[in-house]
Predict the structure.
Amino acid sequence: MSAVRLLVLGIIRLHQPTYGYAVRRELLSWRAETWTNVRPGSIYHALKQLTAEDKLRAVRTEDSDQGPGRTLFELTAAGDDEFFASLRAALVSVDMEELGAGIAFMDALPRQQVVDLLTTQQRATAEIRDGLLTMRSEFPSRYDAPYSPDLLELWSGVFDNFTGWTDRLLRRLAAGEYRMADDPPRPTGDDPDTAG
């Protein structure tokens, strides 16, 4: 699963039809370059690849005063399927870049499904942490690299923090924080974007 593909599909899904520069601008506003490997070239590569795979459709090209025309894209049914499959895979991933991309779009899924997926992710993260702690307790060994205990302690700490972070997110979801796909619509006037 590619975090960049998920991010591109997700942003196009939110703003379709839209064009590559708008996807890039949106990701910059999220500061995605600090938590993913997304770069301008990877965005345009993903657009080209997803279009070739019939996951995106070029809707039209608009004229631009500042250079060549810009092509607007929208998701195809296959693109929508990939978005949801990638989103579910990201929410169980122990790779922080993939998980971050999943968290960015978790509101596209029902609340309980997100809770279930993140619970699976938390179990996997705890297993990795516990395995690293077990390996750490088995030192010293004459066959180990000189700093192996320190590295195992570092990584077990990372996964311990990861497990705790997921636990806090799960508690917020259980408390009803965040709007999810299956939440009832807000009554008119309760939308924070339109409330005066």
Q: What stands out?
A: The beta strands are 18-19, 56-62, 70-75. The chain has a mean pLDDT of 87.
